[in-house]
Each structure stands twice: as C-alpha cells, then as structure tokens.
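Collaborator request, handled under Task 6.
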Amino acid sequence: MKNTDKYQIGYFMPPEPSMKWAAKEYADKAPIWCSVDLRDGNQALIVPMNLEEKIEYFKFLLEIGFKEIEVGFPAASETEFVFLRTLIEKNMIPSDVTIQVLTQARSHIIQKTFDSLAGIKNAVVHLYNSTSVAQREQVFKMTQEEIIEVAKEGANLFNEYATKMPDTKFRFEYSPESFTGTEIDFALKICNEVIDIWKPLVERKVIINLPATVQMSMPHVYASQVEYMSCNLHDRENIILSLHPHNDRGTAVADAELGLLAGADRIEGTLFGNGERTGNVDIVTLAMNLFSHGVNPNLDFSNMMYVVKNYEKYTDLPVHPRQPYGGQLVFAAFSGSHQDAIAKGMKWRETNKDSKWTVPYLLIDPRDIGRDYEADVIRINSQSGKGGIAYILEKNFGYELPAKMREEVGYFIKDISDRQQKELVPEAVFSEFEKEYINRESPFKIEDVIFKKMSAGQPGEGFSAVVFVIISGKRYSLNANGNGRLDAVSNALKTSPYKFDYTFVTYSEHALSSDSTSLAAAYVAIADSKGKNFWGVGTHEDIIFASIKALVSALNRQNSIK
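Structure tokens returned to the collaborator:
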C-alpha cells in the first residue's frame, strides 16, 4: 500500500518502565462493570432508541446484572433528559444500581446535568475534557495550562452543585478524553489536579477513567500507560481506576484485559462492542473470557441466545455468526477431525464428570451459556467426518454405530451434503440414514419366521427356522437349520431361487434407550465374494427380529447397489 509515510506513532510511552502487569497470568476477579449501551451504543445507531425502547433496554441491562448504567447526556439531549427523569420519577432504578451521566466541563451544561438528577439516590457524574495534542492544537487551540483550568473549573462546580443535593449519594468521575494521544506526564498532572479538588474518601471514592478514545498502540503499550497512571495518581487507595477502550485497531478486549492486569478496577463498555466508529470494548467477550478462566464475571450470560435476541431487537444490529460466545456458529464444528475430537472428548467426560473442562476445540461448555451440543456443536456438511455424524446419530437418535460402519455412513452423509450444497440438520441426517440403512424391505421382505429349537441328537445344531419371504414380488416358504436364530434364517434365505452371494462379517446390537420398552437396534455387515462390505440396520421390540431386519437391510442394500 502507498502513503504509509504520512502516518506516525501518536502515543506517548511512560517516562519510566511500567511492565509489572506482564508478570501476571490473568485477572483473578471481575471489574466493576459500567454499561454505556444507552449512551455510546445508542448514539451509534442509525435510528436511536425512543423512550419506550430505552426503558426496555434499561430493564434488559438490569436482568444481566449491571449495577452501573450510563444513560447519556441529559443536558445535551431532550430525549435523554426525559429518559432520566422517567427512571427517577417512576422509581425504576433499584436501590443497588447507580446511574451515570456525562457532561462536558462547561458551566451551563454541568448545572443542567445536576438539575436532571434531582431526587435520585445514587449517581455517578462524569466530567470530561479533551487533552490530546491533536485536540489542543487543532480543535481548542489551548495550552496545557488552559486545558487544566477547564478541568479544574468543572471539578469545582461539581463540588458546588453536589452540596446542594445532600440526599443524593454522588461519585465523581473524570476522563482526560483522548487519553491515548496525550503526553503521559500531562495526563497524570491534570488527573491529579482534579483529584485534589474532589478530595476522595474511602466512602466517597473518585473514578479516574482512562479512555482509549482512539486506539493508537498495541495493547501492551496501553497497559504500560495504565500502570504508570495507577502507580502515580494521588490518593490511589480512594481512586477507582476505570478504562473505556474503543476498538479502532480491533484490540479493545486485549486493551481491557491487559489494563486490568495493570491496575484498572472498572470497565466501561457495551454489549457486543456496539459504539461509534468501530465501537467500544465488548463486555460480553470480556466477561466470558474471565469465566473461561474460572472467574465469576458477576454478569449473567447463562442464556446467551436470549441476550443476543434482545440486543438485536433493540439495536437492530446483527450479532455476527462468528462473534465470540454470542455468535450462532461459535461452537459449530464442521471439520471432520474437529468433530471426531469433540465427540471423543465428550465421551471421555461421561466417565470423568468431576474433571476440569478440557474438551478439545471447545473453550467453555456450551451448556453454561444455554447452548446445545447437538444443535450448536456438531454441524454436518460436506466437510464433516465420521466422528461428528456418528455423534449426531447417537446423541440425537440413540444409534451407536459400530466403529467399522462409521466411515461408510460418514462418506454417505457427506456426499449428500456435497450434492445438495447445504448443511444437513440432525433430522435430515437421520432421515437419510434411515432411508438407506434401517429396515429396508425391497426387493426382499421377510413376513414371518417360525423357530424351533433343535432336539439333542437331531442333525444340525441350535435352531431350525421356517422363513416366509417375499422376493421380487413372489412369496416363498424356506427352511433351514443354524447354530443360532439369525444363522438359521440366513441359511434358509440361501435355499431360495435367488442366489444370495454373501458371508457374515460382523454383528452387534444395543437398546435404543434405557427404557424397558425401548426398541432394540441391530447392525449386520455382510461381504460378497469380492470382499465388498454391505451394512444394514434393523430395529424391533424383539432383538432377534431386529437382527433379522438388519440382515435383510444389508441384503437389500447389496442388491440395490449392484
């Protein structure tokens, strides 16, 4: 690509090494979560939510478990002002939930913001002004000291208005907006100036928020910036260090994760990363990544499809099918080798239920977020393998295919998917399997069999069988002896005018369920004189007749394939 020489590194490294975070393996506790879906997420929509939709989305966020929810700029938008007043006046805010509002560092906006909060019990009031080199030089044309004075004036107004509302429990938040493009020593200085004005206490902590308003660096650089700030902020023990990563470089989740290692206590973000431009940090992914390490995220995503459904309903934005955790296909395995490994891993868990989750290719147990193995994990198309197809037939329909039969059935189903050029749902897989293999009755059909146990001293061993069979439309009565019932039927069939050409290869059976009234399933493989195998499956309440039907199915397949 051309024009690369017009770009330069726009971020600033800390003045001293800040890499202690790199020694940590993972975050061992959930951060404080603040949803900004009703501000950042809503302002990013082509058609923003109306009042009723905002109220319903607010209730949805409460269901998930958010305790801090930002509702926007009540001083800058009449819709957001009315929304906030509705929540307050109709007592729709639970006592353990804190509403957050945002305001620029401008006196008339700050006043209206506090006015909008009249009667609220708990509130975070979020002050910001832009501090980056680009914003100072190009937009505001102000010096560093002038930018600091803007922030200090806003901070003092916060103190003034809060004292007039003694019944509200306030927490103040400050953001040096465009932090990632701000010199670190300057960002630290302006934050400390605000902290000194607000004088945080253990019972009234101050939130310092470090937004990646525009991502400018790799995540480890952002983590180093966060660590430096964390180590040098005034009154750190009474500071809640918050992050608000955007996703311009596609690494918002990584920024947040490394930022938590670097000392952050709080995350502002949205469900599935909705937000202006490339969006915000995806709280679903971030929370579920914690979950995958055994850390309770303190948000409820146990019914992920419900979360997806509501998100899409209110935002009119689709969740990508490959979106981590929430996408329709995130657990789907079409590859044959993946399916085989997953099926074996699931089988292993049946006898190792108390072990930690280690199923190949599945980061978490899909059931933990309300997903279903059969519908969501093993998916069948032309890329699928014998293991996945066998898994579908066993878990959905109870058929435990013999190992040597799986490859044949696998190729059979894959070929159908390839010819139809589409995925086959489990019901379609079974339908094709049933038509090809189970209880086939043409051109040969056994109507009835009468068995008689051989008496000691009689020729032959075991049983005699009289078989009433229809072959190509003609009815025959055939009889023979055998060392077992199935052998006797087989020997009888070989006495018919039709010259059957086969030998037994293998036989197996099982109940289709643990129910005492369950059907039995039998599997028979026969081979012709050239060594080609033909499989058949029989089902019946009686295992003997199931085995006979399996033999007939194999013979009918042999004849049809010829």
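The cover message to the collaborator said: "The mean pLDDT is 92. The chain has three domains: 24-315, 336-435, 444-561. Please let us know whether this matches your experimental observations."
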